[in-house]
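The instructor's notes for this session suggest beginning with a concrete chain rather than abstract definitions. Hand out the sequence below and ask the class to guess, before any prediction is shown, which regions might be ordered.
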Amino acid sequence: MLDGSALDAAARPRIGFIGTGLIGTPMVQRLLECGLSVTVWNRTLEKARPLVEHGATLSESPRALAASCDIVCLCLTNTAAVHDVVFGEQGLDAVLRTGQLVIDLSSIAPDTTREMAETLARACGARWIDAPVSGGLPLARAGRLIVFAGGAVDDLARAAPVFDALSQRVTHMGGHGAGQLAKSCNQLIVACNVVVVAEMLAFAKKSGLDATRLPAALAGGFADSLPLQIFGPRMAAGVDSPRIGGLGTFRKDIDQVVRLAGECGAYSPMATRASEVLREASRTASIGADPDVSRIITLFLERSDAGSAFGGLS
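After discussion, reveal the predicted structure:
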């Protein structure tokens, strides 16, 4: 783990960070705490301005950021957003230099990741690492994220100052796209877990048990998990603010798992069911399209009160 004195001047690459949303903001704060120079840009500039108070430099555009930095980190919403920033009308591909490193911390499609990495290498010689993360806000703030990395081993070594600041472990999963595939495996478990935690707590409430006691009661046993301990108390207490994990993000990730499973011929009944439940939740008026995912317990409670099961979901 790095601190501000752990890097000498020669080992302090200039970092550019595009995407200062829910998870990107604590990442930037952590990079700054570790003594790294960070320039930031976000589509909604107001979300990036508070980071200036922590020592970041605010860039006027993604291209200006890339031109002034050695490593460009991306932490964006979805595949389309990453593609637009890199190859769109104002894309980074026009200014990235040979050997310059792009680290994509977003969770996006592995097949498109491979295509973008290859296209960028041909267009300007820039290097790409797909490096989606797991651990959520608590581990992001602590610099203890888990990183699944895809790309060349030599490029991972060059990315060490970033990964040392942000993570407790980086696993090289293979070539471009392999990191994103590993994240999809991660999200299959996490999304199904979150859905089952909501179902379990709704069952406890309907059966007359004090659901607020269950996360602590189950801690350390076979049923325990980070989603249970992070989202379970919020679900049991009916608390979903501040937002710490978007329903839309879980839905996006599990929908991608279902797509990839279909393309490679993998049988995925649990992922399919979780996708159906999250889709139904996002269409429920009392929940909304993208609140904190803790709110999905509302779906189970409302359907229970209506005396209906989930057999009709599609």
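Then share the key points. The two ends are 46 Å apart (CA to CA). The longest strand covers residues 167-174.
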